[in-house]
Design a protein that fits this description.
heterotetramer; A: 6-stranded parallel β-sheet; two-stranded antiparallel sheet; 10 helices; B: alpha/beta; 7-stranded mixed β-sheet; 5-stranded mixed β-sheet; binds thiamine diphosphate; binds magnesium ion
């Protein structure tokens, strides 16, 4: 299997300036949303585990830009970014983080378990690797029904060492399931650098064990991500073949709210170094250089985003908890 | 009524539900070209083709998860575990995905899936292949657990399980596959989940059982009858949700109970039944409730030791006599 | 006696056993360079080096099996699961290998291994991260199951577990890591497995508890004492083997019992304790034994709902009053 | 990683005629033993599952010839051949199949759970793939203790699709554990041909995911097997690196006693075709051609083997069952 070169599939239109601005806004929204979520966590408004997406915005935005509205997505516990990029409102996501009944999962799921069936956003899963077979199963359903939907599955690079990755990718390739498996390689699984967990650093090459197409993608450039994803989506939708994408990115913040951004397993300098290729700055500068955006335009965009996030916080804060009786609902189907 | 085997009854249930609903498919190791390791799926590949009767690699965690994923978007998978022993490898998907999706998603995502296959011991399969897992699955909110003991129950309950909108753990008895029994022939023969059945009426002692222990209880009841002791045999059929009403009604009549199960004693299904009876019918009990379980050891290979480790009618009779203070 | 935290007590036990026996090593996710996800292994990498304090990839099935393999040839691995929820992925190695090797090999191959990590729920970790697994492991012959509720028990029992020649499932309380208590300072402070402890003496009702529910029972006992009800608090400490003597001796005195546990009700540890008491002490009981358990639902994220789902002193007090027919 | 060419490691001596005759005798012993075990099964003397090794003899004999007496071995449920090749007596193995107290596992393990600690034979395991992490763990112990022992792990080709294979191989390579992982590729996992279960047919290539040395080996030629194994053993013993060997072989008989040799998932012709490269015939003919053996010598060898197997049957049949009290021993350590 050769790694396919990134070339735009026939019929796919190159993103225009408006698209790019949309991506920029989405990335800024995720960034500001996550910053606010971090604050709310410190204030005790959000509890449990909370894993922020700061630094990885281009992965969610770039990949989702290549999807259709009837496609399915599934992710791990670090999924706020993908949820927002998919179009879930900041209100419904923030309210979920606050545990409110207005949240996307009625306050019963929390940060790690965001769901929105209408948008095909199939969760937020907390067991490392657990969502990979689920993704293959949804892709199986697409094939079974003969639709041309595709399934996108996100997981961290540390998940490539767990059995479910192996089992699911083998079956996905064997059965030609329309799935795109995305390794979000942010360099670390908690405090463990890739090289301390994976016998081979070429994570995308694991696809060869399953004769699956694969590619390494620069995850800080949203357009590169989108391009690579378009190829993978076309392969799934038209050729009915899965792809493994290793998208290289970086998380600026700690693993979760209880983990420091640096100090234990990585240096401040390393984080600073990666921040130089910030996905938002890269796209903003590009748009500015191309004359598609000026400082005022960017400021307006940011202001708008901040207002939207602020509104989400207000909404979440003022929403009610679920009724006590909800403790016992949704264990089984209604009427069961 | 036709007399068919438990295996044929399961096969009929699968065939009828596959015919009735395009969303139903069967997946597992050797289910298609090999007709099933225990031939439960005989002929189904031929009738329904490879998209609906799907052979898998040996990858329990993976294909259980694939089933759950398919169920999340509305298909109705029937996932066969060649035996429930191998499902230990897949248990994370059963417990952390299937059983919790509806709750975690605030009711959005259902999981209408059936996990099925033989459980418990057969003959001389030794420690890793002779285990009864019903108490584990019944511990988990979000799952239903069904264990038919007769061909009719096998058919009627499997049809219900496939139509159910929640994940069902359906544990068959490997030693029951060849058991014969009458099964109603009408197409819509359905037995609702959650209903126990009194398999023999009696007045002196209640024997509570499920799956393979149903026949053992019936045999014990016969032996007891020879001594003029009338045992009532209550077959749980569904372990979760437990039919507390039927159990308590029988104990209210007999005031004594023995609980049988194939598995190990510690925190087994029987412990829960005992808990139920003593907490809800304490004042009605004339004796402690006794349990008859498999020996508290890994299953030995040797035939004689294996026999000693298993529940049998003699042990059930002895327990019944003890609660009647006849021994 | 020094007052230290449960976390420090575990850390001391690990350090001392690592010092005492070259065959002991610690393996798990983030145990070395990160000092443990919950910092239980703080400083151990520095003292013992990377061959004995081993960080693993995220591969529970694999590294649990590696631990078992090392134990088969005589090492004494301590395998840390970051939480017991993730151990579901490894449960085949715990149940089908560790628990059965001695039996299947006719006594040739021992498996002196400790699997340890936090179990049960913490705060708002939602459905997949808030589960209590003790009844599952205690169901399995070949395993021992240990659940300390205090710093002293944590230290003394972990040392015993590491020295034990059989596989031990050692479940810590995530919410207990910061709990403080007196711990004897002598080097050879050891608490034998299989011994419950009366944590408070009383005469009116026995409250049986373990791990996190120990503090809840003690708090409930205090509240009951204010109403002149003297509850005896029995901390099981080891779930398997169960200290039946201590339980029965207490019930013989009080004639009434309440059993607390964090986990789900169906076939929980409490069901087994109820079974024990009613079968062995039926004639001594003045009331049914009642259970106080976690709600029979996946754990919700919302804080208020979570609070409702959990065992607390008020629920324990209410149950105690019910068995005293005071409510 | 390049696949290493098969070359004899320095210091290893080429097998002489006596060695070859020993291998021949071992293979014949396994063949006759298994045939008799099959008969005894039909007579009800053996119960449960019984998986015969007929056709695969050269794998066990060739690999074990390259091992030292203090090395460890571990296998799946199809392990009679390896047990005998390792030097377990036909008596102790047959008695175990008969469930007798004189068996290697005191009658408590049976066909799938043969153990002999003194010979480093660490079982017979019944869960597909389960022994692979155990092997890595024993290799970890060898490294931990600083010995130069190595661990050999056998599993069927169907086990490469299960998670434990993936997890164990990654860690074995990452930590440089002295292990040799042997895929006994006999073409089928029960009724499933390799191509219906594995997305890639190059099973040895799965090693690349872990940057592990690997090789495909002709499993019908005992010398080829031995040569490849010697290289792998040296790599483990001296270089402290694991190897994945895919040894291609064939099982002549059904998966277990309840499975027909052919008819369902393979044809009689296919079985006949593979029988043409019978490992015993290949070696016998070679020895005869080289003048190391004549028909009389072979007949004597066979007679001797048959007598040994017959003796094992007699021994097993006349041995006692374990005492009923043994039901409760060996659950925990004595005195526990
Ligand atoms: C099976 C399992 N083991 C351990 C954990 C605990 N855990 C949560 S996140 C994590 C690290 C995952 O890293 P990676 O896959 O790279 O994703 P990232 O957090 O970097 O997005 C670990 C070990 C878990 N949730 N599931
Ligand atoms: C985890 C697991 N799943 C299923 C089985 C049932 N089973 C026993 S052997 C086998 C086929 C294994 O084939 P392979 O690995 O090629 O070994 P072979 O039998 O050919 O030696 C299966 C599916 C099992 N023992 N363990
Ligand atoms: Mg990562
Ligand atoms: Mg095979």
């Amino acid at each position: 299997m050769a790694t396919s070169a990134v070339s735009r599939p026939k019929g796919a239109s190159a993103p225009g300036a408006e698209d790019l601005k949309k991506y920029l806004r989405q990335m800024v929204l995720i960034r500001r949303f996550e910053e606010k979520a971090g604050e709310a966590y410190s204030l005790g408004k959000i509890g449990g585990f909370c894993h922020l997406y700061i630094g990885q915005e281009a992965v969610a935005v770039g990949t989702i830009a290549a999807l259709r509205s009837d496609d399915y997505l599934i992710s791990a516990y670090r999924e706020h970014g993908q949820a927002l990029a998919r179009g879930m409102t900041p209100r419904s996501v923030m309210a979920e983080l606050f545990g409110k009944v207005t949240g996307c999962s009625r306050g019963k799921g929390g940060s790690m378990h965001l769901f929105d069936l209408k948008l095909g956003f199939m969760g937020g899963h907390g067991i490392v690797g657990g969502q990979i077979p689920l993704a293959a199963g949804m892709a199986f359903a697409c094939k079974y029904r003969g639709t041309d939907q595709v399934v996108t599955c996100y997981f961290g690079e540390a998940a490539v060492n767990i059995g479910s990755f192996h089992e699911a990718l083998n079956m996905a390739s064997l059965w030609r399931l329309p799935a795109i498996f995305i390794i979000e390689n942010n360099g670390y699984g908690m405090g463990t650098a890739v090289a301390r967990a994976s016998a081979s650093l070429d994570l995308s090459h694991r696809a060869y064990s399953y004769e699956m197409a694969n590619e390494v993608v620069d995850g800080q450039d949203v357009l590169t991500v989108r391009n690579a994803m378009e190829v993978a989506v076309a392969r799934a939708r038209i050729e009915k073949k899965p792809t493994l994408l290793e998208i290289r990115t970086y998380r600026y913040v700690g693993h979760s709210m209880s983990d420091a951004a640096h100090g234990t397993y990585r240096t401040k300098e390393e984080v600073e170094e990666f921040r130089k290729r910030d996905p938002i700055v890269l796209l903003r500068d590009r748009l500015m250089q191309e004359g598609q955006l000026d400082q005022a335009g960017y400021d307006a965009l940011e202001k708008d985003v901040i207002a939207e996030v602020e509104d989400a916080i207000q909404f979440a804060d003022s929403s009610p908890d679920p009724e006590p009786s909800e403790l016992f609902t949704d264990v089984y189907a209604p009427g069961a | 009524m036709a007399v068919i085997t438990y295996r044929e009854a399961l096969n009929q249930a699968l065939r009828e539900e596959l015919q009735r609903d395009q969303n139903v498919f069967l997946m597992g190791e050797e289910v298609a070209e090999y007709d099933g390791a225990y031939k439960v799926s005989r002929g189904l590949l031929k009738e329904f083709g490879p998209m609906r009767i799907v052979d898998t690699p040996i990858a329990e965690l993976g294909f259980a998860g694939i089933g759950v994923g398919a169920a999340m978007v509305g298909l109705r998978p029937v996932i066969e575990f060649m035996t429930w022993n191998f499902a230990l490898l897949a248990i994370d998907q059963v417990v952390n995905a299937a059983a919790k999706l509806r709750y975690m998603s605030g009711g959005q995502i259902g999981c209408p899936i059936v996990f099925r296959g033989p459980g418990g011991s057969a003959l001389q399969l030794a420690a890793q292949h002779s285990q009864a897992w019903e108490s584990w699955y019944a511990h988990i909110p979000g799952l239903k657990v069904v264990m038919p003991g007769t061909p009719a129950d096998a058919k009627g309950l499997l049809k219900s399980a496939i139509r159910d909108d929640d994940p069902v753990v359906f544990i068959e008895g490997e030693m029951l596959y060849n058991a014969k029994g009458e099964v109603p022939e009408q197409e819509e023969f359905i037995i609702p989940l959650g209903k126990a059945e009194v398999k023999r009426v009696g007045t002196h002692v209640t024997m509570i059982c499920h799956s393979k222990t149903v026949n053992i209880a019936l045999k014990a009841a016969e032996q007891l009858a020879a001594e003029s002791i009338e045992a009532e045999v209550v077959d749980l059929r569904t372990i979760r949700p437990l039919d507390t009403e039927t159990i308590l009604a029988s104990v209210a009549k007999t005031n004594r109970a023995v609980v049988l199960e194939e598995g190990w004693p510690f925190a087994g299904v029987g412990a829960q039944v005992v808990d139920l009876i003593q907490s809800e019918a304490f004042d009605l009990l004339d004796a402690p409730v006794l349990r008859v379980t498999g020996a508290d050891v890994p299953m030995p290979y040797n035939k004689q030791l294996e026999r000693l480790a298993k529940v049998d009618a003699a042990k059930a009779v002895a327990a019944a006599k003890r609660v009647l203070y006849l021994a």
